[in-house]
Design a protein that fits this description.
Length: about 350
């Protein structure tokens, strides 16, 4: 008969090794319960790991595009809001000019409206989103337009004053301006003054914006213009109408010359309103394209997320059961180890 050597040391060491293994399994189970994903994707999926990595790459790309489109949406929405506000200011000025045309109000009232509209125009065109000037086109780090009423005098206002002085030999505020005839004023408005708002003169004296609108890629295959620029025809015509009422000394002119300014400003304002409405229509098309692109990408991301979960996800109830089971086993192992440690040959002598 053969006997085997057994010691309390070997009996104690066995549960200790078992506890270490159980603790490793418990950490894994707790991680899976917390993340609801396999603790080791490569070990669990094997050759299918490449598939889930590909899904995750595409999912991250889609979510990145959607997040980036959030800023594009903000730019478009802000541009639309400012364009609407500028059109509202233009309409209010047009209403004031209509009253002035009827002869029932003082021209200085329309001039005050125009000055307020000028300040609103400059402020709107210099709006920023995320540190970029949204009306500066691709030159979005540069302030598009200077303050018309700035000191020292802005280039735009100086150009208007120089044109007036060259044509009439007096300043807008001079008493002699009352001698300007309606025919001379109309000719000035149609020629020298209108030329100040042509593209070349505008970019020389008024605007540092680029005439090329900023563009953004909103999906893998779509790119849209993400705003309007300060050199757009509608904005230049709006500035022209506002300037002739605000800064040609309308209250110092005789009634007929003043009527020439009022009538011409109303005509140019009408053209500006049409141009700006068309620009807003283009912005609306871009907003619609952006919304549809986000909807498509969100749908694609949802599908990919389901595929990823099908490969990587663990059943949370199963994971919770496994955690509870492992904790019970560890407690049992600790209890067993304690009882073994209390064993002594002296207890049996």
């Amino acid at each position: 008969m053969k006997t085997s050597y057994i010691s309390t040391l070997s009996l104690t060491d066995m549960p200790r090794r078992s506890i270490a293994e159980l603790q490793t399994q418990l950490l894994k189970a707790q991680k899976e319960l917390g993340t609801r994903r396999h603790a080791d994707i490569g070990l669990e999926l094997g050759h299918r790991t490449a598939q889930t990595l590909s899904f995750r790459h595409d999912f991250a790309r889609l979510k990145g595009n959607i997040d980036a489109n959030g800023l594009v949406k903000t730019r478009l929405d802000m541009t639309q809001n400012i364009m609407s506000s500028l059109r509202t200011n233009g309409q209010e000025l047009l209403n004031s000019l209509s009253v002035a045309h009827s002869g029932t109000s003082d021209p200085s009232i329309a001039q005050g409206k125009a000055e307020a509209a000028m300040n609103a125009l400059i402020s709107g065109l210099n709006t920023t989103v995320n540190g970029e000037y949204i009306f500066a086109g691709i030159n979005n780090q540069v302030k598009p337009v200077a303050d018309y009423y700035d000191t020292p005098q802005s280039a735009a206002r100086q150009a208007v004053a120089d044109a007036f002085m060259t044509r009439f030999g007096v300043s807008q505020s001079a008493p002699a301006a009352a001698n300007i005839t309606a025919a001379d004023m109309q000719d000035f408005l149609d020629n020298e003054f209108a030329a100040l708002f042509d593209q070349a003169a505008w970019t020389a004296n008024w605007s540092e914006a680029s005439s090329e609108n900023a563009k953004s890629r909103i999906s893998g295959t779509e790119t849209i213009a993400t705003g309007e620029n300060a050199n757009a025809p509608g904005i230049r015509k709006l500035a022209e109408a506002i300037t002739m009422v605000a800064d040609l000394g309308i209250k110092n002119l005789n009634k007929e010359a003043g009527r020439a300014i009022v009538d011409t400003a109303m005509k140019v304002l009408g053209e500006a309103m049409g141009e700006m409405a068309s620009a807003q229509g283009n912005l609306g098309t871009a907003q619609e394209m952006l919304e549809k692109a986000n909807e498509r990408m969100s749908l694609q991301a949802d599908i990919l997320n389901k595929e990823i979960n099908a490969l990587e996800a663990v059943d949370p109830y199963e994971a919770a059961t496994r955690v509870n089971t492992l904790m019970s086993q560890i407690e049992t192992a600790y209890a067993l180890t304690g009882r073994i440690q209390k064993l002594s040959l002296l207890n049996y002598l």
